C-alpha cells in the first residue's frame, strides 16, 4: 500500500482541517496520523498527515495535481507530498572528531535510520578508515581561506552527483558557505556542543566550565548564515558538578552530541520537522 | 466569547475528523486546539478539541442536541462538552503528611489551578490548622476497620453536599471504598511515592533503598479497586546514590510527589486526560 | 551530642586530610561525613566535614582555638565551624510574584527547612496577606530610583535588627545595592528564570520563546554586582515544544523556579555550598 | 609517574581515613582523588583513592606488602591496588541485537574506553560481520538446554585463554550459568531493558506498554543467580506517551540501553564501583 506524508503550512483560516481530511477521504486515503499546530502570534497553520492510499488505481500524480488545483490554491498553502518509498539521501560532513561519525554509521548499519548515506565529505583525511570500515565513499575536500571557492565548487559537485537531499555536519569544523546554505535551505543539520543560545561559537565546554554551570547541553539546528543562530531542532542536557574537569565536560558532552544529533537526523528524515521564521515545529 | 472543550472517543472509522471539524465550522466555532489519537491495538479513536463559539445567538444546548443527534449517533461516540465557565470542584483527602497539601493550596492561592476547593476531608485532625490558614472547610471523618460504612457514608454525604466533581488523595493513608470508587470512576487521583509498577503498596522508599536503585519516582494515577494498579496520569523521577539515606529518599521524594500530583490535578481539571481500558491518553 | 560542620579551603598541599582527620580523632570527634575537592586549575583544596563531639567536657571554644593555632595556621586555611544548634536566619525579599513565596513558606511550615524566617521585606504591599497568613512580619520598603539610599538604609536596619544571616530574593524585582551585596557577600541567593548564561536580564521567557528553544531552565545563584553573573548554586530545566505559548513557558517555569530556589536555600542553609572565584563547590 | 587506584572496604572504625592518608604521605604518594562512604546501616566504610607515586625508587610490591601488614591488617580491610598501566580485559557476549555492540565498539574505537576487548562470544553467528568489521576475534559458542555443560566449558576456556577480567552481556539472550557467575563474581555486567525492579524478565517493553507507564527505563547491573536481581550500577529513563507504539518504546529504549550500558562499562573499568550486600557504591 502506498504511504504518503503530507506537510502543509499556510495562513490560519477556518475550515482547513475539514477541507484536507475531506480531500483524503475522497481519494480513498486512510489517515493513520494527523497533527496540526497553529502559531497564534504569526497566524500560521501547520499540518502533518500520514495516509495510506487504499485504491491503487488512482495515480499519485493525479492526486497531487488535484490537491494543487483545489485546496492548496484555495488556502494558498506551502505543501509537500513525500512518498515513503523514496529514502532521503544524506551527506555526512566531518573533520577529525569521530564519535558522532561512529554513532551515525552504527545506527545506520543497525537499521535505525531509514535513509541512504551515499558519501562522506571531509576537510581532513583522518577519518577515512572509518568510512572504509563501513564501506561508504569518502571524499577529501580541503577547505581553507585560500581555496574557499574551489572547495565549495567541489562540495556542490559531489552533492549533486550523489543527488543528496540533506546534509549533516557531524562535528564538521568549517564554516559552510552562503551559496551552499542557500542551495540546502533548512536541509543542513549541525550539532553544536552547548545549550544554545548559551555559549555559541568556539570552545563552549571551556566557557561552560569557566562559568561554573551545573548543567551542560547540546543543540542540533539547521544552518543559517548567522553562526549558531539557525532554527533549533532538538536539545538535551546533562548534569555536571565541581568534581568534573573540562575533560569530563567534553566526555559527557560527546554522549549528548551523539544522541541529540541522531534524534535530529531521525526527525528530519521522517519529515517531522517544519521550519517557519527561524523556529521549528516538530511533530513527534 | 464562549469557550468549549469537546472530548470524544469511539471506534476508529473513516471520516471522523472531517465530520467533527465540519460540525464546528457549521456552528460558527473557531477551533483553537485540536488533537487526536488512534489506539491502533484497540482500534479506538480519541479527540480533544477546544473551540470559541463566535455566534452568541446559538444556544449551547441546541449545539449539544444537534451534536448528539447527528455525529455522536452516527459514529457511536462517547463524548462530553465542557464549558470553561464551570470550574471543576475538587475535594482534598489528607491524613498527616502536609507537604502535598501546602503545595496544592499554595498553587491554588497563587492562581495556578482553575478549580474550586470547597472542602478538605481527613481521617485525622492534625492538618486542620492548614485548612484554617487557607480558609477551607475541614471535615474530620475518622475511618477505621470498625467504622468503614459510617465513614464512607459521611464522605459521600459531604461530596454530594459540596457537588464535588473530582477527588484528590494528597497522601491520604486509607483505602478508598469500592462504592466511592464506583461513584467517582476515573475521578479520584492518587499520588503514589514510587515509580509504578515498581514498589506498589506500603513503604516504597524503604524498598527502593533496600534494592539499591539509582533513581526513585512518583506516580499519579486514577484509583481503581486494585491497589496502585489504576490508569497512570503522570510520573517523574529523580536520581539517588549510595550517599543518600532513607531520609534523603523521603525528602527528595516529597518534591516528586508535590510536582507529579500538581501536574495530574492540572491535567485532569483542564480536561486533558481521557481513560480507556486502564490507560490514559493525555493531550498536552 | 554536639554536631559540628567544618568548612575549609586553602592552597592544596600534601597532608591536609591526614592532619584534619587526626585533629578530629584527637578531640574525640566521630566523623559522620567528610568530602573534599581539589580545584586542580586553581590549586585550591576544599573540605566539608561533619562530626559528633563525643566528649562533652571539651568546650567548643577550646577546640576552635586549638584548630586555629595549629592546623588552620600551618595550612593557612579559610575555615568555619558551624554548630547545628544555631539555625540560619533568612530574610525573604519579594515583590509581586507569589509562587516562590508560597512554596518557601509551605516548605518551612512543613518542617523541610532547618532555618528561621524572621521577616519578609517587599517593595510592594501586595503580598502582605501571605505573610500574615503564615504569621511572618512583613515590611514594606519602597525602593525606587529616587529613594535608593533611604531604601537601602531601611533594608540594612531591618536585616541587622533581626540578625539575618542570609537573604533570599524570591522573584524580587529590584536591583540590590552594592553596599548590601558587600555586607552579605555570597549570602544573597537569587532565582533567575532562565538557564544562565542564556537569557540574562529581563523577560527571559519571552526571549526563549522567540529563539525557539526546546528546553527552558532556571538558575539560582549568589548575587554579585554583575547582574546574573554570580556563582551558580543550582540549575534545572524542563522541555518545551512548539505547542507551548509564552504563557505555558511562564507556567512551566514557575515549577522550575520554585524547585531550584528551594534546593539552593536548603543547600546554603545546610552549609553545603562553598564559593571560590565566582564558582561554587556543592557538597551533596 | 605511577598512578595507583586503591579500593577499600571494612567495618567502620575511628581513624581509618587518617591512617590511610598518612600511609600515602609516607610512601611519597600525591593524593589526586579521595572519596569515602559510610554505610550507616551496615556499619561499613568504603574508600576510593587515586595517588601518583612520586618516588620511583620505592617498588610497588613493597608498598603493597607494607600496606597489607600494617593498615589492612589493623583494620581488617578488603582492599585492592590497581595500576593504571594494566588495562582491564573485557569479553563481550552477544546474541542477535546489534545496537549495543555497535555502540561499544564505536566508543572503543573512538578511544573512550580504556580497556582491551580481546574477543566476542555469541550463541548465534549473526553478528560475526560486525566483529570482523572492527577486527575483533568472534567465537560462536552455541548454548542451548542440551549443550549447557559443553557451552559453559567452552566459554570458560575462552575467557581464561584471553585472561578476561570482566564480561559484558550486550543484550546476550541466554542465562549465564552459576559456575560462570561464581568465577566472575560482580564482574559480569548485564543491561536490562526496563527500570528495575519494574518489569524483570522477558519482554519488558511489552509489559510497560500494557501498563501504560509514562516513563521507560534501562538498568545495568551485575549478574547474580537471581535473574535481574543483582546489584544495580546505573539506570536511566526517557519519557513516553500514548502516541508511542511498542515499536517506539523499543526504539527509544535502544538509546537508553546503549547509554546506560556504556556508562556501566566505563565506571566498572575505571574501578569506580564497589559492591556490598547486593548494592553498589559508585564513586563518580
UniProtKB/TrEMBL annotation, chains A, B, C, D:
GO biological process, one term: one-carbon metabolic process
Protein role: Catalyzes the hydrolysis of 10-formyltetrahydrofolate (formyl-FH4) to formate and tetrahydrofolate (FH4).
Annotated gene: purU
Domain ACT: residue ranges: 5-89
Protein name: Formyltetrahydrofolate deformylase
Keyword terms, alphabetized: Hydrolase, One-carbon metabolism, Purine biosynthesis
InterPro entries, per the entry: ACT-like_dom_sf, ACT_dom, Formyl-FH4-Hydrolase_C, Formyl_transf_N, Formyl_transf_N_sf, PurU, PurU_ACT
Gene Ontology molecular function, alphabetical: formyltetrahydrofolate deformylase activity
Family statement: Belongs to the PurU family.
Pathway listed: Purine metabolism; IMP biosynthesis via de novo pathway; formate from 10-formyl-5,6,7,8-tetrahydrofolate: step 1/1
Species, as recorded: Flavobacterium granuli
Gene3D superfamilies: 3.30.70.260, Formyl transferase, N-terminal domain (3.40.50.170)
Catalytic residues identified in the record: 228
Entry annotated with the keyword Ligase: no
Keyword Hydrolase: yes
Top EC group: hydrolase
Annotated EC: 3.5.1.10
Reaction equations catalysed: (6R)-10-formyltetrahydrofolate + H2O = (6S)-5,6,7,8-tetrahydrofolate + formate + H(+)
Amino acid at each position: 500500500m502506498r504511504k504518503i506524508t503530507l506537510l502543509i503550512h499556510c495562513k490560519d483560516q477556518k475550515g482547513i482541517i475539514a477541507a484536507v481530511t475531506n480531500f483524503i477521504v475522497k481519494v480513498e486515503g486512510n489517515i493513520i496520523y494527523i497533527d496540526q499546530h497553529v502559531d497564534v502570534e504569526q497566524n500560521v497553520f501547520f499540518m502533518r498527515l500520514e495516509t495510506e492510499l487504499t485504491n491503487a488505481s488512482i495515480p499519485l500524480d493525479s492526486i497531487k495535481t488535484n490537491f494543487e488545483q483545489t485546496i492548496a490554491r484555495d488556502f494558498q498553502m506551502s505543501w509537500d507530498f513525500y512518498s515513503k518509498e523514496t529514502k532521503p539521501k544524506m551527506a555526512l560532513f566531518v573533520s577529525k572528531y569521530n564519535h558522532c561519525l561512529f554513532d551515525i554509521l552504527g545506527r545506520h548499519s543497525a537499521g535505525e535510520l531509514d535513509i541512504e548515506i551515499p558519501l562522506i565529505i571531509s576537510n581532513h583525511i583522518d577519518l577515512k578508515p572509518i568510512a572504509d570500515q563501513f564501506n561508504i565513499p569518502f571524499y577529501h575536500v580541503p577547505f581553507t581561506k585560500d581555496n574557499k571557492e574551489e572547495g565549495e565548487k567541489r562540495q556542490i559537485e559531489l552533492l549533486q552527483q550523489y543527488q543528496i537531499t540533506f546534509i549533516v555536519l557531524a562535528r564538521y569544523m568549517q564554516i559552510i558557505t552562503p551559496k551552499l546554505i542557500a542551495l540546502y535551505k533548512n536541509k543542513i543539520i549541525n550539532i553544536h556542543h552547548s545549550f544554545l543560545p548559551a555559549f555559541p561559537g568556539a570552545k563552549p565546554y571551556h566557557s561552560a566550565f569557566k562559568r561554573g554551570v551545573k548543567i551542560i547541553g547540546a543543540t542540533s539546528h539547521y544552518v543559517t548564515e548567522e553562526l549558531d543562530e539557525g532554527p533549533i531542532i532538538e536539545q538535551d542536557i546533562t548534569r555536571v558538578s565541581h568534581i568534573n574537569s573540562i575533560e569530563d565536560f567534553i566526555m559527557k558532552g560527546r554522549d549528548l552530541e551523539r544522541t541529540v544529533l541522531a534524534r535530529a537526523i531521525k526527525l528530519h528524515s521522517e519529515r517531522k520537522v517544519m521550519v517557519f521564521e527561524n523556529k521549528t515545529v516538530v511533530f513527534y
